[in-house]
């Protein structure tokens, strides 16, 4: 359940950033595919490279800050990767630069951490 919330948070965060931020926009008119591509990339990369605490509510604040900063950098690089892949394919999202990617990374990371904090937390022996 915890991994599902993390995956859902990554996908919803990517969609939210694509809708809210002016520096992230679709390359072509196919909005459905443009929204699907970043969500898919975020799902894959966030499952491969996990920089989340095992339990959000009991993690020390310093650990949350460090993992949050590392996660924002990771998500920023993923946004730049999404923009590059979209440009190569001629479809997807265009990210205007590093600042737009950074803001997108912040939106994605905050969405993931919020969804992870909601609901029951994993037991220590299951983590």
TrEMBL record:
Keyword Transmembrane helix in annotation: yes
Residues spanning the membrane: 32-50, 62-85, 97-118
Keywords from the named record: Membrane, Transmembrane, Transmembrane helix
Annotated signal sequence range: none
Entries under InterPro entries matching the protein: Phage_holin_4_2, TAT_signal
UniProt protein name: Phage holin family protein
């Amino acid at each position: 359940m915890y991994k599902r919330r993390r995956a859902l948070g990554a996908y919803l965060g990517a969609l939210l950033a694509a809708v809210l931020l002016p520096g992230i926009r679709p390359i072509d008119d196919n909005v459905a595919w443009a929204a699907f591509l970043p969500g898919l990339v975020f799902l894959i990369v966030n499952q491969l490279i996990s920089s989340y605490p095992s339990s959000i509510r009991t993690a020390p604040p310093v650990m949350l800050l460090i993992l949050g900063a590392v996660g924002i950098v990771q998500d920023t690089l993923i946004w730049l990767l999404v923009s590059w892949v979209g440009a190569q394919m001629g479809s997807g999202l265009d990210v205007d630069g590093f600042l737009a990617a950074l803001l997108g990374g912040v939106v994605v990371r905050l969405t993931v951490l919020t969804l992870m904090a909601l609901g029951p937390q994993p037991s220590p022996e299951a983590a």
